[in-house]
Amino acid sequence: MKMFEQEKIPLAVVGATGLVGQKAIAMIDHHPEFYVAEIAASDQRAGQTFEESVCWREPGDIPKSVCTLKLKPIKEVNNRYVISALPASVAQEVEPALASQGSFVFTNASAFRMHQDVPILIPEINIDHLSLLERQKTPGKIITNSNCMVAFIALALEPLMELGAIEHVSVVTMQAISGAGYPSIDSIDIMGNIIPHIAGEEEKIITETLKILGTQTQPASFGITVHVHRVPILHGHTVALHIHFASSVNMHDINDIYLSRNQSWPGLYRLYHEVARPQPARDIGPYDQSVHIGRIKQGARDNIIGLIAMGNNLARGAAGASVRNMEATLQYNSSRENRV
Ligand code: NAP
């Protein structure tokens, strides 16, 4: 049922002028429950309208309802729901202040992901980690989404844990330049080139994946070896995974395992049987929330499975993840309120 704007829940987007902030604004534009009521970026933009300040990189026009909103300094933001798309160094100071004043902060920044009281939430995997919010003493809370590459790794791995215990995962990534924000990497450095390093990324892939796939208090314990690469494509992160199980696994079950998850989460997994897919340029859309999986194969031994996972780093790996987390938290809060 479509709600009138005044019946929807207002929210703020901080870091609104960056790539993730813009994607969040575009995705919220047609959201049935939320609307963007406040926007903020760095202080020097305060007072400018969004349309005069932003370098809009989303398809289509800036949503009309946001065009003429004025950017605020972050300290004036006062909505209960906040999507944060700030650099981690800024988030480190700003997000606890927002939580102290009562805001629920859905953040893309890495600053608090590894804090023991803060969930890295992927509702399709670890909705139970939301109970960590009860340990946060502030009236508002901080809920993080994962690093954009981790989203696809964790979502590709979790269903396969049904096959048996994982001992080790070998990870090789190919990550789009939009993953580095805007303006990010100089075109001279990336055009026709591959850069086999992204600062801090390999550590995040290991620690965040294990935290998401563990319990609220205990990370998963399998080994992960990672090599990351920045590649010259605009959007879409791809990862090659080689998963080593403790004992032999039946690879013929894998398609069904992924597809069965789509019953609870329609469209979550898109599986490809053509040998040359998935491909970022062909297979992802601007607001795409799917994990695209292909090239599933048996490894050199019958306890090893290889596959390719891919998805939209801005839509599923960042802004859309915050939106999903906001929806899940809203549901969690209202079921708690109904219980008391
Ligand atoms: P971005 O394009 O560089 O945007 C950064 C945003 O933060 C801009 O709105 C910028 O405002 C604002 N900002 C910078 N310094 C600030 C300050 N001192 N005070 C207030 N606002 C400030 O970066 P992004 O790619 O959108 O990433 C945002 C966050 O999400 C980062 O933590 C990033 O690691 C994370 N993330 C990104 C992706 C991705 O695929 N890009 C995926 C997952 C997570 P001005 O325009 O005024 O400078």
UniProtKB/TrEMBL annotation:
Coiled-coil positions: none
Domain of life: Bacteria
Keyword line: NADP, Oxidoreductase
Domain Semialdehyde dehydrogenase NAD-binding: 10-133
Pfam families: Semialdhyde_dh, Semialdhyde_dhC
Enzyme Commission code: 1.2.1.11
GO molecular function, one term: aspartate-semialdehyde dehydrogenase activity
Keyword Cell membrane: no
Segments traversing the membrane: none
PANTHER family, per database record: ASPARTATE-SEMIALDEHYDE DEHYDROGENASE
Family in the record: Belongs to the aspartate-semialdehyde dehydrogenase family.
Name of this protein: Aspartate-semialdehyde dehydrogenase
The organism of origin for this protein: Simkania negevensis
Lineage: Bacteria, Pseudomonadati, Chlamydiota, Chlamydiia, Parachlamydiales
Gene this chain is encoded by: asd
